[in-house]
Specification:
It contains 1 helix and 7 strands. By secondary structure, the chain is mainly beta. The protein has one domain: Thrombin, subunit H, CATH 2.40.10. It has a 6-stranded antiparallel beta barrel. It is globular, with a radius of gyration of 14 Å.
């Protein structure tokens, strides 16, 4: 893999039952994966126009399956497909939080 293809941050993918929610105002997005630098998320197609293009500001609360909440800020980096987008965090979860969440998921799903 070339250096240009390596990710800057560890990315954690979630099993469906453990997916965090990103609450942005009156909207709730389902987070598919998250890192210190951003996330990919799904939003109901009926409200997808609120996040329809790059540059839209995103500020809200990332709520993990265990109830822990983290305030995040960023912007839509790109629309992957209708209802699915990539968010770039300007303020996001810490590396320590990412590792704690990784350990929690592994303990629950890996025997």
């Amino acid at each position: 893999m070339s250096d240009s293809q390596k990710r800057k941050h560890f990315r954690l993918e979630f099993p469906p039952s453990e997916r965090p929610k990103l609450k942005v105002g009156k909207y709730e997005l389902v987070v598919l994966d998250v890192s210190e630098g951003g996330c990919s998320a799904e939003v109901d197609p009926s409200v997808a126009t609120a996040f329809a293009h790059a540059g839209i500001r995103v500020a809200g609360t990332l709520v993990f399956a265990n109830g822990e909440k983290i305030e995040v800020e960023g912007e839509v980096l790109r629309v992957i497909s209708p209802g699915r987008l990539a968010v770039l965090f300007l303020k996001g979860p810490s590396f320590a939080k990412m590792m704690t969440e990784h350990r929690r998921i592994r303990a629950k799903f890996v025997t």
